[in-house]
Write a structure and sequence with these properties.
Layout: E1 2-6, H1 10-21, E2 25-29, H2 33-42, E3 44-45, E4 50-51, E5 57-59, H3 62-68, E6 71-74, H4 81-88, E7 96-100, H5 113-120, E8 126-133, H6 138-141, E9 147-152, H7 156-166, E10 172-177, H8 180-202, H9 207-228, H10 238-249, H11 254-263, H12 268-274, H13 280-294, H14 300-309, H15 315-323
Parallel strand pairs: 1-2, 1-6, 2-5, 6-7, 7-8, 9-10
Antiparallel strand pairs: 3-4, 8-9
This protein binds nicotinamide-adenine-dinucleotide.
């Protein structure tokens, strides 16, 4: 299978390694010449300081990249997805399977990535759209450490096709799902709560506070799933609670790291400047906050993160506001 990977950053190269281990023919496209040179000459993923298999090749030429592709895997930060698609569109010939492995929701439109692909790519060029999501740090996958993900598509056979592409009996287990909406939402929303978890740790709060925040984060995710028509059961899978756990508790999470710095008193601009990889949670906070206001969904944690990040309110003020709200029942309204 010839797969073109759009985005040769940490996650793009970790997934390229899985495909290469599964004997797929991988060509990576990246706009950054240095990144492409590092892949072709040094076989190196700079962000992770890790070597990748020598058969993974890279190019800055989008026409070459699209000519190679039976399957196109998008792994670019969501804010550049539309421009990456625009570059690729003139060179897509025939119908392709599009896989998305990025995690985000677009502010204003509230669109998930599969919806943006479906909106921008002509129907005749789309065979299937599949999302690959779940608890996964590139740092571990690139070393061949045990990981399990979910491949989701509204078309069950398409989800199973991507499941078989990535499934590796040594270290990479893939489940399939037909709840594309739920799987994409889980991957996107958990980044907001990873920022919150980092802020909590940065403020010096303990395990009790973290566990409380993670549980209440699930409640907010559940409300958004219900509003958008995703299956709430998906929340209890790899792409929901699985990804929430890994991202709220692991030092590898960029969103957690960014939250930690903000919680420890660094300002947002300084923090983002110091991060070498994308922090999707910032943009997703904006999107989820807007959605919760438009749809009148009560999301105190999302509101709190929005206040810290966009209204520049001190984390300790926001935390004390969260704690001083009226007490309420944990039971769901009947
Ligand atoms: N890193 C992880 O562990 C991980 C795990 C799961 C999901 N993700 C998600 O994957 C996405 C990418 O994350 P990452 O960690 O690989 O980011 P990254 O910052 O390491 O890499 C992004 C890459 O995209 C390239 N790029 C930017 N604009 C481009 C364009 N128009 N065309 C082609 N390439 C372009 C950049 O040059 C860079 O190499 C994010 O949505 C992230 O949330 C990351």
């Amino acid at each position: 299978m010839n797969t073109t990977v759009i985005g040769g950053g940490s996650w793009g190269l970790a997934l390229s390694k899985v495909l290469s281990d599964n004997h797929h023919n991988v060509l990576v496209y990246d706009i950054n010449e240095k990144t492409v040179d590092n892949i072709n000459r040094l076989h190196l993923c700079v962000q992770l300081d890790a070597y990748i298999p020598k058969d993974i090749k890279a190019t800055t030429n989008i026409e070459t990249a699209m000519n190679h592709a039976d399957v196109v895997l998008f792994v670019v930060p969501t804010k550049v997805l539309r421009s990456a698609l625009e570059e690729a569109l003139p060179f897509i010939k025939g119908a392709k399977t599009f896989i998305n492995a990025a995690k985000g929701i677009e502010p204003e439109s509230f669109k998930r990535i599969s919806e943006i692909i479906a909106e921008m790519v002509p129907e005749s060029n789309i065979k299937h759209i599949v999302s690959l999501s779940g608890p996964s740090h590139a740092e571990e996958v690139i070393k061949g450490m045990t990981t399990a993900l979910t491949a989701a598509s509204e078309d069950e056979a398409a989800a199973q096709f991507v499941q078989s592409m990535f499934h590796n009996q040594q270290y990479f287990r893939v489940y399939s799902s037909t709840d594309l909406k739920g799987v994409e939402l889980g991957g996107a929303l958990k980044n907001i709560f990873a920022l919150a978890a980092g802020i909590i740790r940065g403020q010096g709060l303990g395990d009790n506070a973290l566990a409380a925040f993670m549980s209440r984060s699930l409640v907010e995710m559940h409300k958004i799933y219900a509003h958008l028509g995703a299956d709430p059961e998906t929340l209890y899978g790899l792409s929901g609670i699985g990804d929430l756990i890994v991202t709220c508790t692991s030092e590898h999470s960029r969103n957690f790291q960014a939250g930690y710095k903000i919680g420890s008193g660094k300002n947002l601009e300084e923090t983002l400047k110091s991060m070498t990889m994308v922090v999707e949670g910032i943009r997703t906070t904006q999107a989820a906050y807007q959605l919760s206001k438009v749809a009148d969904i009560d999301t105190p944690i999302i509101d709190a993160i929005y206040d810290v990040v966009f209204n520049k309110i001190e984390p300790k003020v926001v935390l004390s506001h969260l704690l001083s709200r009226d007490s309420k029942s944990e039971d769901k309204p009947k």
